[in-house]
Amino acid sequence: MLLAEKVVGDYLLEPIQREDQTFVFQGLSNPEVIRYYGVSYDSLEATAEQMDFYERLIVEKSGASWKLVDRKSGIPMGIVAGYLYQAAHQRIEIGFWLVPEYQRKGIMKSILPVFIQLLTDQFDLHRIEAMVETENAASCSLLEKAGFQKEGILRDYEIKNGKRISIVVYSLLLDKRVK
């Protein structure tokens, strides 16, 4: 599966490459990024695990990931990814993050529809899921504005930093008949 890059206004979605490891580490070690994100790393070397994950998505055809770049400056801003694709059920889960200086500027609002289209171009999808920590009001609002429906809360679903956290389940159903 070849991932293409996509221009979205002032932004560019580029397939993640191994060379992006330093940027991924910068994001996934930043307290503002990982506050509500389920993955974090404490060293550049450890971040190789995340890069392996991104590569496995492509090799195993279980997902796809893109780096979000500011077209004018060429500076990477964040990541959007689809993973856990289940062909038999036509569903995939999504996740995303932006470095702090690009948060709360409406960037993800303009990127999310294009990202969803990229996923539907790559995979046979009926359902797109997102799992969001209940405290992450910004992501909950973003998903709702993008047409995702809140399905419910998984109470005390995970343990993070020694505390139980609850997760909101969102879904977007695409109009597609069962094959």
Largest sheet: 8 strands, mixed
The chain-level structural class is alpha+beta
Q: Helix count, per DSSP?
A: 5
Calculate the mean pLDDT score and round it: 94
Number of strands: 8
Q: Secondary-structure element sequence?
A: EEHHHEEEHEHEE
Quickly give the CATH architecture of one domain.
3-Layer(aba) Sandwich
**Considering DSSP H and I runs of 4 or more, what fraction of the residues is helical?**
25-40%
Silhouette: globular
**N- and C-termini, Cα separation:** 22 Å
CATH homologous superfamily (4th level) name of one domain: Gcn5-related N-acetyltransferase (GNAT)
Rg, rounded, reads 16 Å
| The level-1 CATH class of one domain | Alpha Beta
Beta content comes to 35-45%
Which spans of ≥5 residues are poorly predicted at pLDDT below 50?
A: none
Strand order of the largest sheet: 1-2-3-4-5-6-8-7
Q: Output the CATH topology of one domain.
A: Aminopeptidase
Question: Could you characterize the architecture of this molecule?
Answer:
The chain has 179 residues and is α+β, with helices and mostly antiparallel strands. The chain has a domain at 6-129: Aminopeptidase (3-Layer(aba) Sandwich), CATH 3.40.630. Helices cover 27% and strands 36% of the residues. It contains 5 helices and 8 strands. It has helices spanning 21-28, 31-34, 48-59, 107-122, 137-145; strands at 6-8, 11-15, 64-70, 76-86, 91-98, 127-133, 149-160, 163-173. An 8-stranded mixed sheet has the order 1-2-3-4-5-6-8-7, sandwiched between helices. A hairpin with a 4-residue loop joins strand 4 (76-86) and strand 5 (91-98). The protein is globular. It starts with 5 loop residues before the first strand and ends in a 6-residue tail after the last strand.
